[in-house]
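Example record

One chain of 218 residues, shown exactly as stored in the release files.
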Amino acid sequence: VVGYEPDIYGRATAPSAAVRVQRRTEFLKEFFDLLDDSKHSDQSWGVQFTDEQINSYLEEGFIKQGLASRVLPGGISRPHIVFEPGKAELAFRYGGSWNSVITIDLRIWLAREEPNAVALELEGLRAGALPISGQWLQEEFAKAGRESGGGMDVSWYRLNGHPVALLRFQADQAHPTLLLQDVHVDQGSLTIRGRSPESAMHAFLMHFPDGLLKPISD
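Predicted structure tokens for this chain:
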């Protein structure tokens, strides 16, 4: 049962090396567009990644360039992801005590209570076909947040009986350079939209009722 291998590795992986290289290039273009657009103070920005693009980058770039061994926790290898409406299924090989394929079912949404916070609800966690506790995953998430060096903070709470990871981006910055506005997961794709704090404030002020911002007269 623990040795069961789910079909996620074949569901979003490009069928040939040539296609994977092309999808990797598409992923990198979208990724660097995200970095460039989020620095612009006068416009909104948005990027879309397909799961095939992400998996192709993980296979053709992340793994082959040796980044996986430096970034992923010990024992974890060959990560893959599949997007479905509002959800993602993440799987990776784990060579530790289970020596199995770990599969994680996540529901994803943008938290509205605070800026730049994305919620990941852990709806299922399995080693092979065997359900396992989420405590191990919570510890790995917390460790990744501490070691990311990118200002990401991770905290946990419970919703509907499930653990939820709240990822806060640029949490260590008094003046963040981006403001997330939407994180949307559809069949096969992830879309992220945002704008700079300056352009967000400008749009907010433009929608004030007439006269509300007039100076107070003596």
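Notes: The first strand starts at residue 44 and ends at 50.
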